[in-house]
Amino acid sequence: MIVHLIDGTYELFRHFYGIRRFKKTDPPFGAVAGVLNTVAKMLEDGATHIGVATDHVIESFRNDLWPEYKTGAGIEPALLAQFHPLEEALAAMAVAVWPMIEFEADDALASAAHIAAQDERVQKVCIWTPDKDLAQCVVGERVVQVDRRSGQIRDEQAIRAKFGVAPTFIPDYLALVGDAADGYPGIPGLGPKTAATLINRYGHIEQFPDDVLRNDPERNNLERALLFKHLATLRIDAPLFDDVEQLRWNGATASFPSVAKKIEGKVEGKIGDARLATRVRDLQNRER
C-alpha cells in the first residue's frame, strides 16, 4: 500500500490564494471545498490510505522557545476562519485528520511518516507538501516528499541535489541558514553553500569544531544554532494512530452530504469537476 500524508494547512493556503488570484473573491468556504475536492481527486486516482494534518492553532511549543517564532498574526481572517470547518468536513468525509495544538501540522506529518514507514505492508509514504522542513523525513525512495505545485517527487537523491545535504542534516542546515517562514534568522554570514559545506565536512552542528561557531565575541552562535536546530527538528512522537489501516478510506459518514451542501452553498461557482457529495457518493459506490 501507499500512504498519502497531506499538509492541510498548506492546502488551505494554496486554495485560498488560488481562488483569490483567479476569481478575485474570498468565498466563505472556498478553500475548504478546494481541499476536499483535492482529497476526492486523490481517492479517484486510486489512493486508499490518507491522513491530513492541520494547525488547529498556529502557535505551538516552539513559541515558548523562541519568541519570534511564527504565530497566527497576519493571517487573513477569511482564511483563518476556514481551518476548523476544514477539520470538521474531513471528519465527516471520514478521512483521518489530525488537528494539532501543542505540536504543528509538520510534526504530525513527520510522526505519521515515521509510524507508517515502520510497517512492512507499506510500500511507500508520500508527504504532500513543498515545505522544506519535511525534507528531513525523506528516506531513500521509500518516504518521499511530493510538491503538488511543481509536480516534483523528491526522494533522498533529490533532497541532496536541492539542499546540498542528506535529509538527516536538514535541521542542521535550516538552523544555519534560517527559515523566514518560521521566524528564525539562522547564523549571520552562513548562506546555503557555506552551510552545506560545513555540514558535509563536519557532520551535525554538535560535531563542529569549537572555533566554527564561536568566532563572534558579541554573540554565542553555537548556542543559537542549537536552539534553531531544536526549532527545525520535527517531532516524530505524536500519538496519531496505532495501525496504518486506520488511514484506509472506507466511505464518508452519513452526515457528509449535508456538510458538503453547507460548504458548497457558500462557494461562488463550482470547484472541481463535480459537486462534492456526488463525487464522494460515486467513490463509495465504486468501492462496494
Describe the structure.
The chain has twelve helices and six strands. With 288 residues, it is α/β, with parallel strands linked by helices. The chain folds into two domains: 2-162 and 235-278, Rossmann fold (3-Layer(aba) Sandwich); 164-232, 5' to 3' exonuclease, C-terminal subdomain (DNA polymerase, domain 1), CATH 1.10.150. Strands 3-2-1-4-5-6 form a six-stranded mixed sheet, with helices on both faces. α1 crosses α2 and α8 (170-177) crosses α10. The longest helix is centred in the first third of the chain and has 16 residues, at 8-23. The protein is globular.
Key attributes of the depicted protein:
42% helix; single chain; Rossmann fold; 6-stranded mixed beta sheet
Quick one: how many beta strands? Answer: 6
| Main sheet summary | 6 strands, mixed
What is the CATH class name of the largest domain?
Alpha Beta
Shape: globular
Number of helices: 12
Catalogue the unreliable spans. none
Short synopsis of the structure:
This protein has helices spanning 8-23, 30-44, 62-65, 77-80, 83-92, 105-117, 156-163, 170-177, 192-202, 221-232, 256-264, 276-287, and strands at 2-7, 49-55, 96-100, 124-128, 143-147, 152-154. With 288 residues, the chain is α/β, with parallel strands linked by helices. It has a 6-stranded mixed beta sheet with strand order 3-2-1-4-5-6, with helices on both faces.
